[in-house]
Write a structure and sequence with these properties.
With 147 residues, the protein is mostly beta strands. The protein has strands at 2-3, 12-19, 24-25, 32-37, 44-53, 60-68, 75-82, 84-85, 89-90, 93-95, 98-104, 118-126, 133-134, 136-145. It starts with a strand and ends with a strand.
Length: 147
């Protein structure tokens, strides 16, 4: 499923989620997300998106994010996204036993800064100690223009 929104009333630029086969995310499954930046005069905010069941075994998820800007080599960043705390439980929004997280993250401008127009490609690899990583329905990427 892919959503691309172009409108004067929204700040959305790109959002895509992919289904995890069998709800078990294997380390060998590395989804790719390709989008185009045209307006380099504004700042952009990336988000990591994940949907999982309440049976997910961890309070976080470690991923490698592979980023490639136009005309640049691919670069790798390791990210740790919190999904739950002992005090609050799951941090995302939930319905029944399914939870969705949309987590903003900061990219080091030395790695990628969205200052070049063209196609960008991000790939997301799970690097948890459990392989496959069970009870994960979808993962995705969202890119918004900042206000």
């Amino acid at each position: 499923m892919q959503f691309v929104t172009v409108s004067c009333t929204t700040i959305d630029l790109y959002e895509k989620s992919v289904s995890i086969p069998g709800h078990s995310w294997k380390t060998s499954y590395i989804p790719s997300f390709k989008f185009t930046i045209k307006d380099t005069a504004v700042a952009y905010q990336p988000y990591f998106v994940i949907r999982h069941t309440d049976k997910y075994n961890f309070n976080n998820i470690y991923v490698n994010l592979y980023c490639q800007a136009p005309g640049q080599p691919e670069k790798k960043i390791m990210l740790d996204f919190p999904l739950a705390t002992n005090d609050k439980g799951w941090l995302g929004t939930g319905m029944d036993d399914i939870f969705e997280h949309r987590i903003a993250f900061v990219l080091d401008p030395r790695i990628i800064d969205f200052k070049k127009s063209g196609d960008y490609t991000f790939r997301i690899e799970q690097i948890m100690r459990e392989d496959p990583l069970n009870n994960v329905f979808n993962i995705g990427l969202r890119i918004e223009k900042k206000d």
